[in-house]
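fwd from M.: "can u put these together and see what the complex looks like"

so here's what she sent:
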Amino acid sequence: MEIPSLYLERAVSQFAGLPGIGRKTAMRLVLHLLKRERTDVDAFADSLKALMANVHYCRICHNICDGDICGICATPSRDHSTVCVVESIQDVMAIEATQQFSGVYHVLGGVISPMDGIGPQDLEITSLVERIAKGGIKEVILALSPTMEGDTTDFYIYRKLADYKVTITTIARGVAQNDLLHYTDEVTLGRSILDRKPFILK
Amino acid sequence: MEIPSLYLERAVSQFAGLPGIGRKTAMRLVLHLLKRERTDVDAFADSLKALMANVHYCRICHNICDGDICGICATPSRDHSTVCVVESIQDVMAIEATQQFSGVYHVLGGVISPMDGIGPQDLEITSLVERIAKGGIKEVILALSPTMEGDTTDFYIYRKLADYKVTITTIARGVAQNDLLHYTDEVTLGRSILDRKPFILK
């Protein structure tokens, strides 16, 4: 498909470089932008430039923030002795949305994945160990995705933290809320039986 | 989902304002951009600004272009007496990709759709009529989508051009290449029988 304008071509190529966006979708998005006001599209462009220029990562937990330390680490009322280890910033937001966790986080920035060339040195694991070594942390909750890569990373961190006096826990795995039992995969279902809990009437 | 950075929030909102992109996808795209080089993302932003600043629409056919007249209208070897009327720039590119058309185009910029508040005055219909009135055009091919809106627009243009000495044709409708006959909808199939053609061995 030949694009009749060099500027259109460039903008389409930029959008098509984003994950999950092909050239046809990119074209649709750019033609949508072309129908908007110029000031509106300039604001779009400026928001990206401002993001790259101003965004910071929290010095303590590596969550995204606007200053030196993120809002969560800067809140004294949170439980700073409980650290929840997550893969990404999206995971922090997902857990925050549950309103079930009052501790602090540690964002790894990924999981160990030899297939993708990501090793422990590419992740914020050394800074996690340093944080634990400083003391004051009682519990580390490993909240990585229950995948091969997540499990590998869990195990690696577990080994790294073995010498420190800290409780290491992982989030519960089992049948998801509203899932039909007979559609649940056998590994999850088998595990949910092994990890059964006393029934408590709430 | 609360976003921990104002700049992140703004960029996510901008992406989420694009058609077909929700907040979760927008977040994924922005976090992808954050992992890129700053110069890379600045180039993305600049490509949008350059697009809005430099893009033009062809004075003759309203196709997108970088100058005053588009590449198609500026090519003397094309058949300037045959005008193909299309809804959008994407349609021009789709027809050009077939390499079956050597005439020129007229981009309406939409179709008549009272439901979306789009009337004939919002489209490039007056400029089409003026183009025909000038003379030199023998055939107008209506190549709009075979929808209610496309058919309405076809009919409107047909009425507007009735007084001019110009042949008006529409693109063939029928069973699409490689479609299974028993999955083809009954309107299309019925029409393909009514519009049958003499069999020619190619």
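replying to her w this: Residues 38-54 of chain A form the longest helix (17 residues).
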